[in-house]
Amino acid sequence: MKYLDEYRDAGLTRKLLAELQRTLAHEWTLMEVCGGQTHSIMRSGLDQLLPPGIALIHGPGCPVCVTPLELVDKAIALASRPEVIFASYGDMLRVPGSDRDLFAVKAAGGDVRIVYSPLDALAIARGNPDRIVVFFAIGFETTAPANAMAVLQARAQGLDNFAVLVSHVTVPAAIAALMESPDVKVDGFLAAGHVCAVMGYREYEPLAEKYRVPIVVTGFEPVDLLTGILACVRLLETGKPGVQNAYARSVTRDGNKPAQAVIQKVFALTDRAWRGIGVIPLSGYRLHDEFAAFDAEKRFPDIQEIVAQESPLCISGLVLQGIKKPAECPAFGRECTPRTPLGATMVSSEGACAAYYRYGRYPK
């Protein structure tokens, strides 16, 4: 494919691997923050081609995976209401709640619809004025601008039957929380290129300085990933922490200013719970008070009483922090499979457990 094949070029990949081998003098542990990068690494076999001195661990960069169980249960409760049409991206329908998932609600007669954009949910609201349409607004900063625009359009169009169940989280706060944890050992980070395309990478510079770690903005194809890994290793070997941009074709230091402006207009920072990890202060978004009429949790206050208990068999929290690899979970491939998942990391298209299962990175 034009403009894509060059980032999957086998010859260039071999050259980057050889340069990485020449550069490497110590052992380093790198974390790719994004679950999409994890799947690309596994799909292309990069994890098996890297020199032995480099260990890759997988971070909390899958927004489906870090959506807390309690919020999934709230989504299920809303989707079960006869007056509600619940709209969601397809990934969320298989995510297990405490006793069922959204697919089970749909099978039982709930009006659960898969959408590909929040604009689809707005169209459903326009076409069903006698129903309340709730859109499951999840994601990192990448999806926040579109979800914010949906709220602005709903207000402008007078769609008072539209609401969002917000589960937005932010990457810099997660990196800070990982570096503050005594159990997490990370020497350098590969930052998610799509998040930085929106937000830029200014926010990462004080993190790199405070925690003395390199952070390299990285893309998603094999050449992108190896370029990012090489840049990170070079910084580590020279003892120079800082931020580098290895994805310059899509990312600038300042990011997308109009997208940032719409995020700031609609959302405010708030404490957020991360599934399996716990509450990270100021790590997510909530709607500003002026948009409270579109907040599903305020529109249906009874769901705020829902609490949930994680499965004791699932170690997804440890996986999301890079403390454990998926195959180290006793339930992996046994009690927990894509057909019978214990956690979101096994069913999300960006989940680390799903990547290990799909690409066979576990003992047979």
Explained architecture:
The protein has 364 residues and is α/β, with parallel strands linked by helices. It folds into 2 domains: 1-304, 3-Layer(aba) Sandwich (Rossmann fold); 316-357, no CATH class. The chain has helices at 10-23, 35-44, 46-49, 63-66, 69-79, 102-107, 118-127, 144-156, 171-180, 193-199, 204-211, 222-238, 257-266, 296-299, 316-320, 352-358; strands at 28-34, 54-61, 84-88, 112-114, 132-139, 162-169, 188-192, 215-218, 243-245, 267-274, 278-287. A 6-stranded mixed beta sheet has the order 4-3-5-6-11-10, with helices on both faces. Helix 1 (10-23) packs parallel to helix 12 (222-238) and helix 8 (144-156) packs across helix 13. The protein is globular, with a radius of gyration of 21 Å. The protein starts with 9 loop residues before the first helix and ends in a 6-residue tail after the last helix. The mean pLDDT is 94.
